Amino acid sequence: MRIFASLRIAGRALRRNKMRSLLTMLGIIIGVGAVIGSVSLTTGATKQVEDQVASLGENVITVFSGNFTSGAMRGGWGSAPTLTLDDAKAIAKLPDVLAVSPEVRDREQILANGLNWNTQVMGESPDYPQILNRSIISGVMFGDQDVRSLAKSAVIGKTVADQLFPNEDPLGQTVRIRNLPFQIIGVLTPKGFNLFGQDQDDVVVVPYSSHMHRITARTFLNDILVEATSDKTILKAQDEITDLLTTRHRSKDPDFTVRNQADLMDRVSASSKVMGGLLAGVAAVSLVVGGIGIMNIMLVSVTERTREIGIRMAVGARAADILVQFLIEAVTLSAIGGSIGIAGGMTFSWLIARLQHWPTSTPTVWIVVAFISSAVIGVISGFYPAWKASKLDPIDALRYE
Q: Which long-range contacts (CB under 8 A, 24 or more apart) does 172-175 make?
């Protein structure tokens, strides 16, 4: 029963000084609200970036030409044309490879419907949509027969369709690339900008054979897109590709670069975690400041209520009862402040999501952590004032004015 009596006494003491109690809680409210707000924003942003990385394709490995050393000359990926169609065909035969798309690309000024547009023209295989997790919103993707016959068929993105065929259906229309007529047989599903700021819909995709023999007359590839059989075999497939190309190219130093989507995801996640940690650290400072505020007010409260403490001890209250009472007051202040801070932080996140269209997400575990942290801070900051109050001499306390 003593604990309930202490709760009632603590409640009366806090209600007696409502404004002071509110100001005391303010530090905890701001600190917890900042923690919840920062975690919500960073978690939402991380999720958005991870979704964008995933939208680039799952289990994707990209082989870039370059990363070569020739005498005193050194270069990174893309610095030398070293990949061939035979390399792509050899990679396609590896056991842990599901799909392959040899890739060649150039920016071209294309014409159609009396309009022109500068866009990226990409030569790909029919597996391109599957590898990069893209689909055709209307029409069809070109097939293997189109690749073999060097067909003048094209699949375009929504941006190109909007620019060249406003308010028209582009299917069956003709687009001229270097004055060569290509028939539009499909339109890619819109994907918007990727995390690198590139418009993924500003593209024209043609068979890689048509690009290499009809448009640019090149013999080397820019890169090779590869899809592993699963996320569990992606590292094994990457090693197989590295070993294969090292053997095929017979070079002392690799003249190619192999990267997988998991590497990009890890780097993005690591950056997001660092930013989240920095924001949470700044918010934690506010929690510490709030705890100091509670300690300060509780010390003042002990001084003001010295005579009250003396009376309670004179009528039978033990030192432990006084200790518990002041601890309850401190924990109550911090717990209420933490609850208000959690609600405020989630409200702030919701407003940001609605007004700025930023993604936000508040993990339940962080709500629990924030509440427990506020309660722990209440215990820590309230212990010394409570201990000081419990050590007062009853006679000296009754004499206190």
A: 173/112, 173/113, 174/112, 175/110, 175/111, 175/112, 175/204
* Angle between the N-to-C axes of helices 18-55 and 2-16, in degrees from 0 to 180, rounded to the nearest 10: 100
Claim to verify: residue 17 and residue 88 sit in the same structural domain: no
Q: How far apart are CA 128 and CA 292, in angstroms?
A: 60
CA distance linking residue 281 with residue 162, whole number of Å: 46
Scan for tokens 């000081």, then name that residue. 388
* Residue 350, beta-bridge partner list: none
Q: Where in the sequence is the domain holding 124, given as residue range(s)?
A: 83-254
In this structure, which amino acid lies at residue 74? Answer: R
CB 140, CB 186: distance < 8 Å = yes
Query: Quick check: 294 and 24 in contact, CB under 8 A?
Result: yes
- The tokens for 294 are 């509670």
Is the domain of 99 the same as that of 224? yes
Asked if residue 36 is part of any domain, the answer here is yes
Residue 194, helix vs strand vs coil = coil
The span from the CA of 174 to the CA of 156, in Å, is: 11
Q: Is residue 374 part of a domain?
A: yes
Taking alpha carbons only, the member of 228, 52, 207 closest to residue 144 is 207
Angstrom distance (rounded) from CA 298 to CA 302: 6
Query: Which pLDDT band, with edges at 50, 70 and 90, does 331 fall under?
Result: confident
Please report the pLDDT score of residue 101 as a whole number.
95
Residue at which a domain ends, from 229, 254, 279: 254
Rounded alpha-carbon distances, angstroms, from residue 88 to 82, 91, 167: 12, 5, 39
Amino acid, single-letter form, for residue 141:
M
The tokens for 110 are 């294309």
Q: Kindly report, residue by residue over 73-109, the tens digit of the pLDDT.
A: 444 444 457 899 999 999 999 999 999 999 999 999 9
The 3-state DSSP class for residue 72 equals coil
Q: What is the pTM of this model?
A: 0.62
Strand, helix or coil at 99? strand
Same domain, 216 and 105: yes
Confirm if 75 and 68 have CB atoms less than 8 A apart.
yes
Helix axes 319-356, 306-314, angle to 10 degrees: 130
